[in-house]
């Protein structure tokens, strides 16, 4: 719990991630102690889970099987059981990652043009955007570099925080977010 704890933890996480193999088509996303492995191959996922467990153990870390989940858009019954350190990781269709709910919806109805996750994010960003817009448009407003810094601090940080969940969405679902950022 000291001042150096977050710094030392980041060094440990960097070491842990650097020990993992590079597998084409597989991405590892890490934010603090939340880690997501994205892949389309069941074989690659099991291989990465094993390597991740070995790397974590070599760094003195213990993986919590109770907090680990396999999240998929496929039929869970058609997938093999995935294990890490002798523990089978359960499948799920919804989970919370970095405080945001993530779930696969079969299809977005035509009348609902914005994906629910993107809509929730836009609702969170709108109140943060209002002061930046006012400051940038006001006659006695701020310069472009200051407005950009405010944008990065107030808005971009939220988008970056949720990027592991956003990267799972199809590109068309992200268009409203892109329009928001370009206005």
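^ structure tokens above, recovered residues below v
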């Amino acid at each position: 719990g000291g001042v150096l704890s977050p710094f030392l933890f980041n060094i440990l996480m960097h070491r842990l991630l650097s020990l993992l193999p590079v597998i084409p088509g597989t991405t590892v996303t890490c934010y603090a102690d939340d880690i997501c492995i994205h892949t389309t191959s069941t074989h690659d996922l099991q291989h990465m889970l094993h390597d991740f467990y070995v790397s974590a153990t070599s760094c003195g870390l213990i993986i919590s099987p109770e907090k680990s989940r396999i999240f998929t858009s496929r039929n869970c019954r058609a997938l093999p059981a995935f294990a890490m350190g002798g523990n089978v990781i359960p499948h799920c269709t919804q989970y919370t990652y970095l405080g945001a709910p993530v779930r696969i919806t079969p299809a977005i109805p035509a009348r609902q043009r914005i994906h629910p996750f993107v809509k929730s994010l836009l609702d969170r960003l709108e109140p943060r955007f209002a002061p930046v817009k006012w400051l940038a448009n006001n006659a006695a407003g701020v310069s472009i570099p200051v407005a950009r810094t405010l944008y990065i601090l107030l808005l971009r940080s939220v988008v970056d925080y949720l990027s592991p969940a956003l990267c799972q969405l199809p590109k068309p679902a992200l268009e409203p977010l892109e329009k928001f950022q370009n206005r």
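The radius of gyration is 20 Å.
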